[in-house]
């Protein structure tokens, strides 16, 4: 399924790569850091930073953008997105920003154009709650936290 997404470069994003898929079967579009060319952002261990992307979106109603970690950053450096997945609503028109946290043991340095996260475009279900006085019973019922893994 192809979804048309409105895309706008902001001044700080000019000259960067538009978010794109890096393989034929990729689900996520890579997002790059839109910081000044001469600057770096250093995230110390156990600290976080909000990184600008340099663009904003116009999503069609009925869709969201999810901001997710890049597995390579997590595996190699312990760096991930803090609120994964971050949700970009269809009515938001501001700059897309990524909250990164460094769970690693060394400072993590970000330069302009570094791929920092990935974005997934997904359909949104609109729900209606039906107020019930009793829920149907199941084999599991109220058993939670680890109950389905026991034999």
Task: Name the descriptors.
single chain; 151 residues; mainly beta; Deoxyuridine 5'-Triphosphate Nucleotidohydrolase, Chain A; 4-stranded antiparallel β-sheet; 10 strands; globular
Question: Total domains, how many?
Answer: 1
Number of DSSP helical runs: 1
Number of strands: 10
CATH topology: Deoxyuridine 5'-Triphosphate Nucleotidohydrolase, Chain A
Give the biggest beta sheet.
4 strands, antiparallel
What's the CATH H-level homologous superfamily? Deoxyuridine triphosphatase (dUTPase)
Give the helices and strands, then pairings.
Blueprint: E1 6-9, E2 29-32, E3 40-43, E4 48-58, E5 63-68, H1 71-77, E6 79-81, E7 86-88, E8 95-102, E9 108-111, E10 115-123
Antiparallel strand pairs: 1-4, 2-10, 3-9, 4-8, 5-7, 5-10, 6-8
Give an account of the 3D structure.
The chain has one helix spanning 71-77; strands spanning 6-9, 29-32, 40-43, 48-58, 63-68, 79-81, 86-88, 95-102, 108-111, 115-123. The mean pLDDT is 94. The radius of gyration is 19 Å and the shape is globular. It is mainly beta and 151 residues long. The protein is built from one helix and ten strands. It has a single domain (6-149), classed as Deoxyuridine triphosphatase (dUTPase) (Deoxyuridine 5'-Triphosphate Nucleotidohydrolase, Chain A), CATH 2.70.40. The termini are far apart.
């Amino acid at each position: 399924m192809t979804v048309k997404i409105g895309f706008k470069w902001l001044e700080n994003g000019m000259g960067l790569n538009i978010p794109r898929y890096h393989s034929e079967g990729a689900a996520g579009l890579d997002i790059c850091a839109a910081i000044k060319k001469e600057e770096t952002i250093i995230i110390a261990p156990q600290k976080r930073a909000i990184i600008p992307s340099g663009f904003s979106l116009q999503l069609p109603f009925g869709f969201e953008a999810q901001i997710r970690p890049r597995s390579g950053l997590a595996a190699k450096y312990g760096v991930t997105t803090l609120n994964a997945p971050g949700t970009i609503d269809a009515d938001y028109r501001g700059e897309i920003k990524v909250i990164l946290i460094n769970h690693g043991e060394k400072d993590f340095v970000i330069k302009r154009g570094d791929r920092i996260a990935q974005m997934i475009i997904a359909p949104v279900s609109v729900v209606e709650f039906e107020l019930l006085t009793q829920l149907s019973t199941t084999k599991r019922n109220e058993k939670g936290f680890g109950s389905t893994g026991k034999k």
